[in-house]
Every structure is written in C-alpha cells, then in structure tokens.
Amino acid sequence: MAELFDLAGIFVFALTGALMAVRKRLDVVGMAVLAEITALGGGIARDLVLNVTPTAFLSLGYVLVPLAATAVVFFWHPHVTRVMPVLLVLDAAGLGLFCAVGTAKALLYGLSPLHAALLGVTTAVGGGMLRDVLAGEIPTLLHDRQLYAVPTMVGSGALAAMDAAGLKGWPVALGAAVLTFVLRIAAMRFNWRAPLARGVRREP
Length: 204
Known about the structure:
The protein is an all-alpha fold. It has 7 helices and no strands. Helices cover 74% and strands 0% of the residues. The termini are far apart.
C-alpha cells in the first residue's frame, strides 16, 4: 500500500514536470526528462545522502510511472491543464507524503532529528527544484509563493521532533504528512506567502 501511494505521488509530480515542458515548448524528450526529474529527483538525492541505492533504481515502476505521465500530457495536455486545481490538491498530498517518507527514512538510518528533517524537505521539494533549474526558472524553493516549502519544513520538523520524544510508527508519519497537506492547502486557499526582506515590495 505504501508503494502504491508513493507511485501515485510520483505520477502527480511527473505531470507537473511534463506540463512545465509543454509551457517551455520542449519536445517529448524534454517532457520525459522533466517528468522523471520532478518525480524522482528528491528521492534520489535523499538516498545518495544516505549512501543507499536509490529506490528509483530498485523498482521498474518508479521509472515507468513518470513516462506514463509524460504520455498523458503529450496527448491530452489541454485537458490536464483544465483539471490543474485537482492536481494541485494531489500535489499537496504528494508533498506531505514525500516529506514524511523522507524524514522517516533518514531517522531510520540514524540521522539526527535536524538532519532528518532537512532530508525530508529535500525529498519533497528536490525534484521540483531540479525541474525549475533545467527549465530556466527561479526555483520555487527560493521564492516560496503560497508557502510550498514551508509546509514541508513544518511537517518534517514535527515528525523529527516526535521521533526524538519517543513517538514513532506509521500513525506519527501519517500525522506529519496530513499536517503538511493541510498547511499547503491553507496557503493556496488564503494566499499565504513567506515574508520578503524589510523594505522590499512584491512584484505586481
């Protein structure tokens, strides 16, 4: 079941990567690259830090699912764009799931709570950051519009803190994922944003 949810999150993340490629007028190869990077980049970075074989290279599904998302966008990108509000909700769910899974795995491999939380954030937003760099965009992580990275920081931090307090297990990880999801949805609903430096105004 956990792998099924993981693959669902990967599919949604891959859709956003492929859609970015369409907006940049890239060909199908560029679409596939951005889809794979968006979906798998954060998890691969996490596993390399932990010095383990990346999960993406242990299961064929982790590679094929982003390709399936690429095919969907290639043929039906206008329809996919129309259901973007639904995809954003699913993206928020994937964000929560990935930050919880990343933090939990880092704790399992003996990292300190702080480092585990940082690796959880990397798992959740790393792929999107790589996508933006490859597409020539300022990474969302660096201008956290509608609090994309902040919810993962809160969720990962909460999971690491609870683990340090002796609270462990899947209910704790699920709670951290739900916390991240709720904060992300609230940020989209109420247009919450991270503050800028004093005296700096937002672009209109």
